[in-house]
């Protein structure tokens, strides 16, 4: 009977969000050939929607399940440091993106160098990261949560298929506007329910976390921990700058605001929310350790299933499903935007039907991500694996942006070679030889890529002469 109540409330609230989103979007006319209309919601998002959509795109199951699954306070640094990345985006990068009327973050590189090839290369790196890392992780963690919370006997892969189908529908038929609206609705529910879960979790152990090993409740990690303290001084800040400042999945929300000021207000609101998020993504994991021991990524779903009454757990499952769908369909929309604007319109057909091309791209990415779900199911710590693998494209891409924005006259050919060099170097560090923690190796990869790019530009190719300077403009 309890499970029936859970399911009724779950499907009821999920359907309500879908209905409200449909009602708000159905009267809006769209131009199928206008990429800004489909991928940036026509540039009409308010700061409230920008903030809500940012949070829901970022805080999905891979964050809530993965960070609580680490069952250590140290992972709070991912959220604390994120505030710095958001501030850098709001204060410095968003005005540049708006000045050059960018539909995608990668468009800025083409404007700088008058070179479509750089834009295409960076877009391909982003799309590979989305298809082979982010999308399958989102599907896996969301499905794992639902399975562990409801005690379902069906497989994680089957649940992933359900999430993928629903998420693809949002991304394909609604565009960014539908995604952002549903994000905002689910965002309110997630914050409220997340705080309630943390409160009830602490109440379940009488607000007493004694007995948990000291290394799990410290913010100063030793060399053997997931986040050694010294990594905060090297790669951590660059990971945040990449994620919040150049990553299309995130930055797309701010690019879709009504104005620069509206985007900045949304970003600063997101900063405030980020400092609250550790209550949701860290504390329950610690409580789960005290109650169940080291249970890994099933910790959050098991805890929620045990401490929430049936009607409330159904509601929470609904907002968690919304969080999963938000990240998944947001990533699909961003992948479609990158391919359509940066590849198809530049190299295949400049007048292509944006919606039709975006639909095909979304379907391909959905299928690829589903095939990879069983592989990620073998991971012992999904949040650590996710951050480590992201370095394969994040640091080379960030190096390209730094060279474009912080240095003058860097040759476009040097940038392209630098991108390939960065991917290869980090791949060696990840799969062949790992002398230091992966966060240190990300910083080393970034520095090496920038140095090689600048050296190639100065010593071999010569200065770039074909374009304007973004810094001096």
The largest pleated sheet is described as: none
* Total DSSP E strands: 0
CATH fold-level assignment: Sodium/glucose cotransporter
**Beta-strand percent range:** under 5%
Q: Any overview of this molecule?
A:
With 473 residues, the protein is mainly α. It has a single domain, classed as Sodium/glucose cotransporter, CATH 1.20.1730.10. It contains 19 helices and no strands. Helix 8 packs across helix 13 and helix 17 runs antiparallel to helix 18. The C terminus is likely disordered.
Offer a concise description of the structure:
The protein is mainly α and 473 residues long.
Features of this protein?
Sodium/glucose cotransporter, mainly alpha, 473 residues, disordered C terminus
List the helices and strands and how they pair.
Blueprint: H1 2-25, H2 35-39, H3 47-58, H4 61-70, H5 76-99, H6 107-113, H7 116-150, H8 156-204, H9 235-245, H10 248-255, H11 260-276, H12 278-281, H13 283-292, H14 299-307, H15 310-348, H16 354-376, H17 382-406, H18 412-431, H19 438-461
Helix pairs in contact: 1-8, 1-15, 3-8, 3-10, 3-11, 3-15, 4-7, 4-13, 5-9, 5-11, 6-7, 7-8, 7-14, 7-15, 7-16, 7-17, 7-18, 8-13, 8-15, 8-16, 9-17, 9-19, 13-14, 15-16, 17-18, 17-19, 18-19
